[in-house]
Amino acid sequence: MKRLALPATLVGVIVLIALLAPFLGLPDPVRQDVAQRLALPSPGSPLGRDEFGRDVLARLVWGGRTSLSVAFAAALIACAIGTTLGLMAAWFRGLGGMLALGSTDIILCFPPVLLALLVVTLAGPGSLTLVMVLSVLFLPGFARVTYAEVQLVQELEYVEAARAIGATTPRILLRTILPNVAGPILVQLSLAVAAAIVLESGLSFLGMGVVPPAPSWGLMIRGARTTLEQAPQLLLWPCAALTLTIFAINLLCDALRDTVDPRTAQKSR
Fold first, then answer.
1. How confident is the model at residue 263 (pLDDT cuts 50, 70, 90)?
2. Can you tell me the distance from the alpha carbon of 92 to that of 87, in angstroms, rounded to the nearest whole number?
3. For the chain, how long is the longest CA-to-CA vector?
4. How far apart are CA 129 and CA 123, in angstroms?
5. CA-to-CA separations, 92 to 95, 98, 148, 151, 163, in angstroms, rounded
6. pLDDT tens digits, residue range 172-187?
7. Cβ contacts of residue 198 below 8 Å, gap of 6+?
8. Domain map of the chain by residue range?
9. Which tens digits make up the pLDDT trace of 28-72?
10. How far is it, in rounded angstroms, from Cα 230 to Cα 36?
11. Rounded to whole angstroms, how far apart are CA atoms 130 and 152?
């Protein structure tokens, strides 16, 4: 539990700041004031103003709210669907299970960024489109990880014991097998959230993600690129926020893996 303290605190603070954005008394993140274009930090704007005179701190906080909501929503949807497919395919093994798992392999045939660009181009940019695209992209990873882990544990003694006492299939899957494969799934979740944040920022940077003037870390990086010589610090803040967030999420999920996974816990004893 001690190992969870630092990463949980970091992620908790980041998420809490994003959730409390409407109540922090920040300036309107989309309100422009051209007279203060590229203004240096001041008491009213601790991080200065961007190329349109918008408050950088407000856009950073609200951009985090956007990026985190898209990333967590996409990763959790992919985790729920992919884990279910992996459990069913590994447990029942029949043609239906194999077809369900094999269908996810089609997604792996396409480069993730190109597939995301294609779908966003056809469906139009926006947060909802990003959630749908990213959840589909990460679904095969969860299905494959779950399938492989269930294959390893389903013949072990405690699973056979659950069968012997007449436990139902849902109970065996949810109460016996799933907790013992949760560690790798949590690691996959950390990778998916981190990758979703990066992909969302990348697509927004390319103008294919969050629609301006809504704040996003990717849009902030895109805007900072045009004023790199005059105000290089504008590039620093969104990049630092991305790095810190991804680092904290990976630390948290690694710690959760070591805490939740019974096999790791037994080794540590």
1. low
2. 8
3. 76
4. 7
5. 9, 9, 14, 11, 14
6. 777 778 888 888 888 8
7. 242, 246
8. 49-262
9. 888 888 888 888 888 888 998 988 889 999 999 999 998 899 999
10. 14
11. 34
Nearest residue to 65 via CA among 216, 201, 192: 216
Share of the chain above pLDDT 70, in %: 94
Q: What are phi and psi of 204, to 5 degrees?
A: -65, -35
Can you tell me the mean pLDDT for 152-160? 75
> 54-90: string of b/e by CB count within 10 Å (b at 16+)?
bbbbbbbbbbbbbbbbbbbbbbebbbebbbebbbbbb
Average pLDDT, the chain: 83
Q: Which CATH number is associated with domain 49-262?
A: 1.10.3720.10
Q: What is the pLDDT of residues 122-139, one digit of tens each?
A: 887 888 888 988 998 899
State which amino acid sits at residue 259.
Answer: T
- pLDDT given for residue 78 in this prediction: 93
* Token pair recorded at residue 41: 């930090």
**pLDDT band at 165; cut points 50, 70, 90:** confident
